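Fold it.
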Amino acid sequence: MKIFETHTHYEDRAFDADRDEMIEKGREAGVECFVNVGSDLETSRKSIEIAEKYGMDEAQYRAYAAVGVHPENASDFNEQTLREIEELAKNPCVKAIGEIGLDYHWEDECPREKQKPAFISQLELAKKLDMPVIIHSRDAAEDTLAILKDFAAGMKKEGKTVRLVMHCYGYSPELADEFIKLGFYIGVGGVLTFKNARKLRETVLRIPKDRVVLETDSPYMSPEPERGTRNDPSKLLYVAEKLSELWECPAEQAARICYENSLKLFGL
Protein backbone atom coordinates (compact mmCIF):
# COMPACT_ATOMS: atom_id res chain seq x y z
CA MET A 1 0.00 0.00 0.00
CA LYS A 2 1.24 3.48 -0.93
CA ILE A 3 0.42 6.11 1.72
CA PHE A 4 0.91 9.88 2.03
CA GLU A 5 0.74 11.04 5.66
CA THR A 6 -0.32 14.69 5.50
CA HIS A 7 -0.13 15.57 9.21
CA THR A 8 2.20 14.15 11.83
CA HIS A 9 4.15 15.51 14.78
CA TYR A 10 7.31 13.41 14.89
CA GLU A 11 9.00 16.31 16.69
CA ASP A 12 6.80 15.63 19.73
CA ARG A 13 8.56 14.44 22.89
CA ALA A 14 6.50 11.25 22.66
CA PHE A 15 8.91 10.16 19.90
CA ASP A 16 12.17 11.19 21.59
CA ALA A 17 13.07 7.64 22.59
CA ASP A 18 12.37 5.92 19.27
CA ARG A 19 11.85 8.49 16.51
CA ASP A 20 14.07 6.69 14.01
CA GLU A 21 12.33 3.39 14.66
CA MET A 22 8.85 4.88 14.29
CA ILE A 23 9.74 6.57 11.01
CA GLU A 24 11.14 3.26 9.75
CA LYS A 25 7.98 1.51 10.93
CA GLY A 26 5.94 3.95 8.86
CA ARG A 27 8.10 3.31 5.82
CA GLU A 28 7.64 -0.45 6.19
CA ALA A 29 3.86 0.08 6.37
CA GLY A 30 3.90 1.93 3.05
CA VAL A 31 4.15 5.55 4.21
CA GLU A 32 6.19 6.94 1.32
CA CYS A 33 5.73 10.63 2.17
CA PHE A 34 4.89 12.59 5.29
CA VAL A 35 4.47 16.22 6.30
CA ASN A 36 5.69 17.10 9.78
CA VAL A 37 3.61 20.01 11.04
CA GLY A 38 4.72 22.81 13.34
CA SER A 39 2.54 24.42 16.00
CA ASP A 40 4.89 27.21 17.11
CA LEU A 41 8.30 28.54 16.12
CA GLU A 42 10.22 25.87 18.02
CA THR A 43 8.27 22.92 16.59
CA SER A 44 8.34 24.51 13.14
CA ARG A 45 12.15 24.56 13.30
CA LYS A 46 12.17 20.97 14.51
CA SER A 47 9.82 19.99 11.68
CA ILE A 48 12.35 21.35 9.19
CA GLU A 49 15.14 19.43 10.89
CA ILE A 50 13.13 16.21 10.63
CA ALA A 51 12.26 16.85 6.98
CA GLU A 52 15.89 17.53 6.14
CA LYS A 53 17.06 14.40 7.95
CA TYR A 54 14.51 11.97 6.53
CA GLY A 55 13.57 13.64 3.28
CA MET A 56 15.58 11.47 0.91
CA ASP A 57 17.62 8.30 1.04
CA GLU A 58 18.26 5.21 -1.06
CA ALA A 59 14.60 4.26 -0.80
CA GLN A 60 13.47 7.70 -2.02
CA TYR A 61 11.67 8.33 1.27
CA ARG A 62 10.25 11.85 1.18
CA ALA A 63 9.62 14.05 4.20
CA TYR A 64 8.38 17.62 4.23
CA ALA A 65 7.59 20.30 6.80
CA ALA A 66 4.86 22.83 7.52
CA VAL A 67 5.54 25.94 9.61
CA GLY A 68 3.14 28.06 11.61
CA VAL A 69 1.64 28.96 14.97
CA HIS A 70 -1.32 26.97 16.33
CA PRO A 71 -4.15 29.08 17.81
CA GLU A 72 -3.46 27.69 21.28
CA ASN A 73 0.03 29.22 21.04
CA ALA A 74 -0.98 32.57 19.56
CA SER A 75 -0.91 34.71 22.72
CA ASP A 76 2.54 36.13 21.98
CA PHE A 77 2.17 36.23 18.18
CA ASN A 78 3.50 39.48 16.69
CA GLU A 79 5.16 40.90 13.57
CA GLN A 80 8.49 39.35 14.52
CA THR A 81 6.84 35.95 14.78
CA LEU A 82 5.39 36.40 11.32
CA ARG A 83 8.77 37.41 9.90
CA GLU A 84 10.36 34.32 11.41
CA ILE A 85 7.69 32.06 9.90
CA GLU A 86 8.27 33.68 6.52
CA GLU A 87 12.00 33.06 6.82
CA LEU A 88 11.43 29.42 7.78
CA ALA A 89 9.05 29.01 4.84
CA LYS A 90 11.91 29.75 2.45
CA ASN A 91 13.44 26.36 3.19
CA PRO A 92 12.77 24.10 0.16
CA CYS A 93 11.46 21.28 2.35
CA VAL A 94 8.66 23.51 3.68
CA LYS A 95 5.52 22.84 1.67
CA ALA A 96 2.77 24.53 3.72
CA ILE A 97 1.87 27.11 6.33
CA GLY A 98 0.34 25.39 9.33
CA GLU A 99 -1.10 24.38 11.48
CA ILE A 100 -2.97 27.62 11.93
CA GLY A 101 -6.57 28.49 12.67
CA LEU A 102 -8.99 29.00 15.54
CA ASP A 103 -9.63 26.90 18.64
CA TYR A 104 -12.23 28.30 21.01
CA HIS A 105 -12.10 25.16 23.14
CA TRP A 106 -8.81 26.58 24.47
CA GLU A 107 -10.04 30.17 24.70
CA ASP A 108 -8.89 30.38 28.32
CA GLU A 109 -5.35 29.62 27.13
CA CYS A 110 -5.52 32.11 24.28
CA PRO A 111 -8.53 34.43 23.80
CA ARG A 112 -10.15 34.68 20.40
CA GLU A 113 -9.09 38.33 20.20
CA LYS A 114 -5.51 37.03 20.00
CA GLN A 115 -6.27 34.01 17.84
CA LYS A 116 -8.00 35.85 15.00
CA PRO A 117 -5.21 38.32 14.12
CA ALA A 118 -2.59 35.54 14.24
CA PHE A 119 -4.75 33.39 11.98
CA ILE A 120 -5.42 36.12 9.44
CA SER A 121 -1.79 37.26 9.39
CA GLN A 122 -0.58 33.75 8.62
CA LEU A 123 -3.22 33.33 5.91
CA GLU A 124 -1.99 36.56 4.33
CA LEU A 125 1.53 35.16 4.44
CA ALA A 126 0.37 31.97 2.73
CA LYS A 127 -1.30 34.09 0.05
CA LYS A 128 1.83 36.18 -0.39
CA LEU A 129 4.00 33.06 -0.75
CA ASP A 130 1.32 31.15 -2.70
CA MET A 131 1.64 28.18 -0.37
CA PRO A 132 -0.83 25.53 0.83
CA VAL A 133 -2.40 25.95 4.26
CA ILE A 134 -3.15 23.44 7.03
CA ILE A 135 -6.13 24.57 9.12
CA HIS A 136 -6.91 23.66 12.72
CA SER A 137 -10.45 24.60 13.74
CA ARG A 138 -12.29 23.56 16.88
CA ASP A 139 -15.51 25.01 18.31
CA ALA A 140 -15.08 27.94 15.92
CA ALA A 141 -16.95 26.94 12.77
CA GLU A 142 -18.65 30.26 12.00
CA ASP A 143 -15.57 32.46 12.38
CA THR A 144 -13.34 29.94 10.58
CA LEU A 145 -15.65 29.77 7.57
CA ALA A 146 -16.02 33.56 7.38
CA ILE A 147 -12.26 34.16 7.51
CA LEU A 148 -11.52 31.40 5.00
CA LYS A 149 -14.14 32.71 2.57
CA ASP A 150 -12.31 36.04 2.58
CA PHE A 151 -8.99 34.25 2.09
CA ALA A 152 -10.30 32.19 -0.82
CA ALA A 153 -11.76 35.30 -2.45
CA GLY A 154 -8.42 37.09 -2.07
CA MET A 155 -6.56 34.18 -3.64
CA LYS A 156 -8.99 34.10 -6.55
CA LYS A 157 -8.66 37.86 -7.07
CA GLU A 158 -4.88 37.44 -7.39
CA GLY A 159 -5.29 34.55 -9.81
CA LYS A 160 -3.94 31.99 -7.35
CA THR A 161 -5.28 28.49 -6.68
CA VAL A 162 -6.48 27.77 -3.15
CA ARG A 163 -4.73 24.71 -1.69
CA LEU A 164 -5.98 24.22 1.84
CA VAL A 165 -6.84 21.28 4.08
CA MET A 166 -9.23 21.24 7.01
CA HIS A 167 -7.12 19.17 9.39
CA CYS A 168 -8.81 16.58 11.61
CA TYR A 169 -12.25 17.56 10.33
CA GLY A 170 -14.84 17.50 13.09
CA TYR A 171 -17.74 19.65 11.91
CA SER A 172 -20.96 18.66 10.13
CA PRO A 173 -21.32 17.14 6.66
CA GLU A 174 -23.28 20.25 5.65
CA LEU A 175 -20.43 22.57 6.64
CA ALA A 176 -18.04 20.32 4.73
CA ASP A 177 -20.06 21.21 1.63
CA GLU A 178 -19.19 24.86 2.18
CA PHE A 179 -15.50 24.11 2.53
CA ILE A 180 -15.55 21.92 -0.58
CA LYS A 181 -17.18 24.74 -2.55
CA LEU A 182 -14.16 26.87 -1.66
CA GLY A 183 -11.86 24.20 -3.10
CA PHE A 184 -10.57 22.81 0.19
CA TYR A 185 -9.50 19.30 1.15
CA ILE A 186 -10.72 17.38 4.20
CA GLY A 187 -8.17 15.63 6.44
CA VAL A 188 -9.32 12.22 7.69
CA GLY A 189 -7.59 10.26 10.44
CA GLY A 190 -8.15 7.83 13.29
CA VAL A 191 -11.51 9.32 14.30
CA LEU A 192 -13.01 7.72 11.18
CA THR A 193 -12.62 4.32 12.89
CA PHE A 194 -14.37 5.37 16.12
CA LYS A 195 -17.83 3.97 16.80
CA ASN A 196 -19.22 7.46 17.54
CA ALA A 197 -17.83 9.03 14.33
CA ARG A 198 -21.15 9.10 12.47
CA LYS A 199 -20.76 12.72 11.29
CA LEU A 200 -17.31 12.15 9.87
CA ARG A 201 -18.37 9.00 8.06
CA GLU A 202 -21.34 10.88 6.60
CA THR A 203 -18.96 13.64 5.52
CA VAL A 204 -16.63 11.18 3.78
CA LEU A 205 -19.56 9.65 1.90
CA ARG A 206 -20.94 13.07 0.98
CA ILE A 207 -17.88 14.84 -0.42
CA PRO A 208 -15.99 14.01 -3.64
CA LYS A 209 -13.27 11.39 -3.28
CA ASP A 210 -10.74 13.77 -4.79
CA ARG A 211 -11.06 16.04 -1.73
CA VAL A 212 -9.97 13.54 0.94
CA VAL A 213 -6.44 13.17 2.35
CA LEU A 214 -5.11 10.87 5.07
CA GLU A 215 -3.52 12.05 8.32
CA THR A 216 -2.77 10.80 11.81
CA ASP A 217 -2.06 13.89 13.96
CA SER A 218 0.31 11.47 15.71
CA PRO A 219 1.13 10.95 18.51
CA TYR A 220 -2.56 11.75 19.09
CA MET A 221 -5.88 10.30 17.87
CA SER A 222 -4.85 6.66 17.44
CA PRO A 223 -7.44 4.65 15.48
CA GLU A 224 -9.34 1.55 16.54
CA PRO A 225 -8.32 -1.10 17.46
CA GLU A 226 -5.41 0.79 19.09
CA ARG A 227 -7.33 3.77 20.40
CA GLY A 228 -5.76 5.20 23.55
CA THR A 229 -2.20 4.26 22.58
CA ARG A 230 0.44 6.48 21.02
CA ASN A 231 -0.40 7.07 17.38
CA ASP A 232 2.10 6.90 14.53
CA PRO A 233 1.79 7.03 10.72
CA SER A 234 1.95 3.23 10.31
CA LYS A 235 -1.55 3.14 11.80
CA LEU A 236 -2.94 4.87 8.72
CA LEU A 237 -3.47 1.32 7.47
CA TYR A 238 -6.50 1.13 9.76
CA VAL A 239 -7.85 4.43 8.44
CA ALA A 240 -7.36 3.36 4.83
CA GLU A 241 -9.22 0.13 5.54
CA LYS A 242 -12.17 1.98 7.08
CA LEU A 243 -12.19 4.41 4.17
CA SER A 244 -12.22 1.51 1.72
CA GLU A 245 -15.27 0.07 3.48
CA LEU A 246 -17.12 3.35 3.06
CA TRP A 247 -16.04 3.78 -0.56
CA GLU A 248 -16.55 0.08 -1.33
CA CYS A 249 -13.16 -0.35 -2.93
CA PRO A 250 -9.86 -2.07 -2.00
CA ALA A 251 -7.83 -0.35 0.72
CA GLU A 252 -4.94 0.04 -1.71
CA GLN A 253 -7.19 2.00 -4.06
CA ALA A 254 -8.50 4.25 -1.28
CA ALA A 255 -4.94 4.99 -0.16
CA ARG A 256 -3.85 5.67 -3.73
CA ILE A 257 -6.68 8.16 -4.29
CA CYS A 258 -5.70 10.01 -1.12
CA TYR A 259 -2.02 9.87 -2.14
CA GLU A 260 -2.77 11.57 -5.46
CA ASN A 261 -4.94 14.14 -3.68
CA SER A 262 -2.07 14.91 -1.30
CA LEU A 263 0.35 15.50 -4.16
CA LYS A 264 -2.08 18.06 -5.60
CA LEU A 265 -2.67 19.68 -2.22
CA PHE A 266 1.04 20.27 -1.62
CA GLY A 267 1.95 20.97 -5.23
CA LEU A 268 4.31 17.99 -5.52
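The CA atoms of residues 86 and 127 lie 12 Å apart.
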